[in-house]
Amino acid sequence: MAVLNHGHILTAAQMQAAEQRLIDNGTSVIELMHRAGTGAADYIWRAAPHCPTLILCGPGNNGGDGYVIAQALLEKETDVAIAASGEPTTNAAKNAKSLWQGQTFALDDARPAKQFIDCLFGTGLTRPVSGTLLDHHQRLFNEAERRVAIDLPSGIETDTGAILNPVSRYDLTIALGAFKPAHYLAPACGLMGGLAGVDIGVDAASAVQLLARPTIEPPKTDDHKYTRGLVAVVAGSMPGAAKLSGLAAQRSGAGYVKIFAETGFSSPNHSIVVEPHENGAQLQGQLSDDRIAIIVIGPGLGRDSHAERLLDLVLDIDKPVLLDADALILLGKTDLNRLKDRSAPVIMTPHAGEFAALSENDKGSKIDLTRILASESGAVVVHKGNNSVIADPEGTAALAPASSSWLSTAGTGDVLVGMIAARFANEKDVFLAAKQGQWLHSRAAKLAGPAFSPEILIDHIPKALQECL
């Protein structure tokens, strides 16, 4: 069995094109189906050997994969049968059925088994499963103890992760040939269970890749606080958020962290410097320090006229900037050209609500929408959520696997901001910094366990960083 490498993520059209290239170069559809089916059968066998199994086969090539899986399991002396929704309609599926030596039942006659394998519909489904077909699917699914989806659960839209009809959670999903956006995009990703993949020989590049653990270089022997990067955090009306960002930047490798705030702001610890200012002119002078690697503005900024003036002041300074939270709401849909006209790089970290305030587009997958906003703004965009998408203006994107659901608490986004800023201060590459910060944020959350506070999350950043050295 050839194990599928997590990496490039292919849409339905890209997958079809990649398979067609193999076919054009002499690999038959029948051979591709054999690779997919036998590889999936090996996964299923290793996870649950000799488990009584019923495979629900549709009329297309996903159903053909099911016949190959069934025959491979039968040859391993598994009690396996097929429930067919109809006769195969493709030549490869017809061939697979002709080689099947076990029992096939019509849906009305099919009886549940301990293990249910869904080969009804896979990649490319655009309409819901409905009527008696859905009823039989749910009947056989619900009465099984173990459920496996081949390529995708039936009822999932490949490119967006949308749920087209009622779909319950599977125990395992086995991707064929390549991982698809729906394997990692909400809401579908929460229904996949364990995720595995079978390599069938597809060799296709994509501008969308799965976020992988980064390799981070430790400081060199001659580094000092400024070569490792000075992160400047501009505080607003809610100072706690700026403090969290500052602390997170410090624990993520920044050489120096300063918080710029109005008089009366207290430092979160002894090593983070607070520089007070009394007016915009003074702040502008402070932020013009050539040693500052990146300016963070947005966490706890507020949305009043004073906050608007602070944002305008920061955007007028030709330095790398990270915009988050209130800064994104204030920026709104009309000022994106202001970002694109800047010579210094910009990172934006919107959650879904902030993204809606920035983008006029609402059609397409989260990946598509993030790439469009990055192109329109000229910024690297980190579209946050339980499956974050990071895109640069050139169209390259990284898709983060689902993070810990315990991150759904106030302040964890402020932590992410500080982490990305620190990584930029070190790397001087906005897309790389966004990817490193996102990975470290997700990993620290897993290390923190359940029900953590932002401060506990920050405490686990060095442990996540250690894994990257």
Architecture overview:
The chain is α/β, with parallel strands linked by helices and 469 residues long. It folds into 2 domains: 12-205, 3-Layer(aba) Sandwich (Rossmann fold); 230-466, 3-Layer(aba) Sandwich (UDP-N-acetylmuramoyl-L-alanine:D-glutamate ligase). Helices cover 38% and strands 17% of the residues. The protein is built from 16 helices and 17 strands. Strands 8-17-16-15-14-13-12-9-10-11 form a 10-stranded mixed β-sheet, sandwiched between helices. It has a 7-stranded parallel β-sheet with strand order 3-2-1-4-5-6-7, sandwiched between helices. A hairpin with a 5-residue loop joins β16 (389-391) and β17 (397-399).
**Molecular shape:** elongated
Helix content: 25-40%
**Largest beta sheet: strand ordering:** 8-17-16-15-14-13-12-9-10-11
- How far is the first residue's CA from the last residue's CA? 32 Å
Care to count the β-strands?
A: 17
Tally of distinct domains: 2
* CATH architecture name of the largest domain: 3-Layer(aba) Sandwich
Please specify the SSE layout and strand pairing.
Blueprint: H1 12-24, H2 29-47, E1 53-57, H3 61-74, E2 80-84, H4 91-99, E3 103-106, E4 115-119, H5 131-142, E5 146-150, E6 172-176, E7 194-198, E8 208-210, E9 230-234, H6 239-251, E10 256-262, E11 273-277, H7 280-287, E12 292-297, H8 305-315, E13 321-324, H9 326-331, H10 336-340, E14 346-349, H11 352-358, H12 366-377, E15 380-383, E16 389-391, E17 397-399, H13 412-427, H14 430-448, H15 454-459, H16 461-466
Short description:
With 469 residues, the chain is α/β, with parallel strands linked by helices. The chain has helices at residues 12-24, 29-47, 61-74, 91-99, 131-142, 239-251, 280-287, 305-315, 326-331, 336-340, 352-358, 366-377, 412-427, 430-448, 454-459, 461-466; strands at 53-57, 80-84, 103-106, 115-119, 146-150, 172-176, 194-198, 208-210, 230-234, 256-262, 273-277, 292-297, 321-324, 346-349, 380-383, 389-391, 397-399. Strands 8-17-16-15-14-13-12-9-10-11 form a ten-stranded mixed sheet, with helices on both faces. Strands 3-2-1-4-5-6-7 form a seven-stranded parallel sheet, with helices on both faces.
